[in-house]
Every structure is written in structure tokens, then in C-alpha cells.
């Protein structure tokens, strides 16, 4: 998956470099540091993330994406940002024995 993303990012950077010039090349280092830090942080959480936690966070994220879709379709106005704490509560509830 990471190789596919890197390939797509490479093609996107070529297209952006034709418009924005050398600045695209200079943005590679901050992006490398940022994505590398996120990868290392995710690797350190490997022992903490259980399948139940992953399921609950995925379900909560799916509902947030559903709210974004409702907003894009102009069906009604859902304030998705107000539901972001639900991700934290989903994580906390996965550690609570029921």
C-alpha cells in the first residue's frame, strides 16, 4: 500500500512541479519528516491497538464520513466537528469491561 501511495505521490508531484516549480521539491523533506514521525508513532502503538478498538474507531469514523457525505449532498447540515470527541470515547469504551 505504501509503495502504491508513493507512486501516486510521485506522479502528483511531477504535475504540481510543472505549475509551482522548485518549491515542490523543497516540500519533500518536511513531508518525509511528518509522515515518518506518524509511521513511527503508529508502530509504537502496535501492542495497544486491539481488534475491538480498531473496530469501534472504524465504525465511528464511518459515521463521521457519512455525516460529511450528507453535508456534501446538502440534505441537511451535520456539524461533523462536534462529533470528533466520539473517536476518543470509542477508544475509551473499548478498554472498559462490560
TrEMBL record:
<feature type="transmembrane region" description="Helical">
    <location>
        <begin position="80"/>
        <end position="97"/>
    </location>
</feature>
<feature type="transmembrane region" description="Helical">
    <location>
        <begin position="12"/>
        <end position="33"/>
    </location>
</feature>
<keyword id="KW-0472">Membrane</keyword>
<dbReference type="InterPro" id="IPR007563">
    <property type="entry name" value="DUF554"/>
</dbReference>
<keyword id="KW-0812">Transmembrane</keyword>
<dbReference type="Pfam" id="PF04474">
    <property type="entry name" value="DUF554"/>
</dbReference>
<feature type="transmembrane region" description="Helical">
    <location>
        <begin position="53"/>
        <end position="73"/>
    </location>
</feature>
<protein>
    <submittedName>
        <fullName>DUF554 family protein</fullName>
    </submittedName>
</protein>
<keyword id="KW-1133">Transmembrane helix</keyword>
Amino acid at each position: 500500500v505504501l509503495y502504491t501511495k508513493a507512486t501516486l505521490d510521485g506522479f502528483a508531484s511531477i504535475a504540481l512541479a510543472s505549475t509551482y516549480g522548485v518549491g515542490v521539491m523543497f516540500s519533500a523533506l518536511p513531508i518525509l519528516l511528518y509522515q515518518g514521525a506518524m509511521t513511527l508513532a503508529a508502530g509504537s502503538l502496535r501492542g495497544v491497538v486491539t481488534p475491538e478498538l480498531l473496530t469501534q474507531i472504524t465504525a465511528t469514523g464511518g459515521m463521521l464520513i457519512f455525516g460529511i457525505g450528507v453535508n456534501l449532498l446538502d440534505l441537511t447540515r451535520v456539524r461533523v466537528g462536534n462529533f470528533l470527541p466520539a473517536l476518543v470515547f470509542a477508544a475509551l469504551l473499548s478498554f472498559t469491561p462490560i
